[in-house]
Amino acid sequence: MMYDLLVSAREIFLYFVPLAFYWLLLALALAVWLRARAARRRSAVQARPARITLSGALGLSALLCTVLSLPVGPHLVARLLVPSDVPVLTVQGSEGLSAGGRTDVFIAVFSGGAYEAQPGVWLPSSTSVRRVLSALPVAARLNLPLAISGGSVTATAPAEADVIADRLTLPPGTVLDRSARNTYENGLGFARLAGSRGWTGAVVASDYMHLRRAAACLRAAGLQPTALLPATMPRRLGLLDIVPNPASFGLWRAVSREVAGIAFYLAAGRIGWEDL
Prior knowledge:
The protein is of the alpha/beta class. It has two domains: 2-40 and 53-68; 79-275, Rossmann fold (3-Layer(aba) Sandwich). The model is unreliable at 1-8 (pLDDT under 50). Helix 4 (72-79) runs parallel beside helix 9 and helix 7 (183-197) packs across helix 8 (211-220). It is elongated and about 80 Å long. It has nine helices and seven strands; from the N terminus they run ααααβββαβαβαβαβα. The protein is 47% helix and 13% strand.
């Protein structure tokens, strides 16, 4: 009991101490703003037209930073990026999926990048590795074929699918699409592979924030998402998620990227509202 309390106290200490400077800056900015507002209220000059002052801008910026740095915000928005009309798989379970042993369903792994570790030596990114490793045990358990889509995003880089195949041990018969440079082209590449092999349904393997856009691109290409296989899962929210944390800005960046990607694909006609 005492050990658990000490561990909990240590975790709380390690969580809060690095954030103290950030909170101090927010508190100072808010204090300057409140003091300036109080001074203006006490001032006899009340008829002057309203204008944005330096203290006002500072205070509003502090309030905006406080709101955006609450982890609960991006986590709640990110949950909307997981389609609710398709069953979700995990590495351990396959509830809601009746695809085991079917010959018309495959696992579609969306690559997540590659990088040049040293001249001429390319490695899959941690995102790509995470997505593939989450798909391998499911493919083995349900006896489903595996396909990986990822092309070259620059003129000098190899195709991400080839980098993954070179660095990871893939099951025999894994199919590679080397042409895709983005999620939309991933969908087209999977559709070409499926058309030549008689596949009509796909288990979408990607990070959970990416699943809605990935599934929409598969639908737009003529494939039916049969299930979702998230390489990462939304975590449970707790009390610390209502405590300002600058790490939330990184979460907002990832969420905003997906929302902007969906909006762009809709505006460009690559996907339709019915695909979402």
